[in-house]
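Retro notes (design track)

What went well: tokenization of the new backbones is finally stable.
What didn't: we kept losing track of which sequence belonged to which structure.
Fix going forward: every design gets posted as structure first, then sequence, in one message. First example under the new rule, 237 residues:
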């Protein structure tokens, strides 16, 4: 099985942590970088090949990961000279990728079964599978519903439930057909194109542990919780 890790972002939201370190190498706990945890998890799940799409401070990532042999994987690299969006780096890699593969952000801390995501994607026949997570958003204001300048409803500080993308995807290579290598392509653009073509993505619903450490609050939470959750996150790794 093959995974592509998107590790080229500047990590602006995590400054000053990412001033000298690429976001995938920020520390979690006392011993691990987030990218190391992800690579350990992928190897334990049976992934043997991984491509790292690197850009900002990519030479540090390359020096840290090397050829991946320390985790029992074969790792290669694709360098992003200018920002290409979430899916854009895959276009230049297309000929190096298998028919189906996993794509994920390099800043995800989760106990998701990556191999099962790819298996379910292959079984679904969908062009794209999106791992989703239930997230509750609290609104700190009273919310008004208006009609013709009249308030017709009011809710005090409501909570809203959404299913959000976890930044982990199963993808079929053919889904990239028709897009031009070297041009930016965002995840949002790809999903909207698939919906417009009446070829919807498949949703892989997950309710375990997930944090996107690109958010400062979640990064602080990840460090606070890692010791107690280490056996869950690195089981079999």
């Amino acid at each position: 099985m093959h995974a592509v890790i998107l590790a080229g972002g500047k990590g602006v939201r995590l400054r000053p942590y990412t001033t000298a370190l690429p976001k995938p190498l920020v520390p979690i706990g006392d011993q691990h970088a987030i990218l190391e945890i992800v690579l350990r998890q992928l190897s334990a799940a049976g992934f043997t090949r991984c491509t790292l799409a690197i850009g900002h401070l990519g030479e540090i990532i390359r020096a840290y990961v090397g050829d991946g042999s320390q985790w029992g994987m074969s790792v290669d690299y694709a360098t992003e000279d200018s920002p290409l969006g979430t899916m854009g780096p895959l276009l230049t890699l297309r000929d190096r990728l298998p028919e189906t593969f996993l794509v994920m952000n390099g800043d995800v801390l989760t106990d998701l079964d990556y191999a099962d995501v790819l298996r379910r994607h292959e079984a679904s026949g969908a062009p794209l599978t999106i791992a989703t997570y239930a997230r509750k958003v609290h609104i700190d204001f009273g919310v008004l519903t208006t009609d013709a300048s009249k308030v017709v409803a009011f809710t005090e500080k409501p909570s809203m439930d959404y299913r959000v993308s976890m930044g982990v995807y199963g993808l079929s290579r053919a889904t990239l057909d028709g897009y031009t290598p070297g041009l930016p392509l965002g995840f949002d653009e790809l999903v909207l194109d698939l919906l417009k073509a009446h070829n919807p993505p498949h949703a892989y619903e997950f309710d375990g542990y997930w944090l996107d450490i690109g958010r400062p609050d979640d990064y602080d939470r990840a460090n606070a919780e890692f010791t107690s959750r280490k056996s869950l996150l690195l089981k079999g790794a």
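Added context from the reviewer: The chain is about 25% helix and 30% strand.
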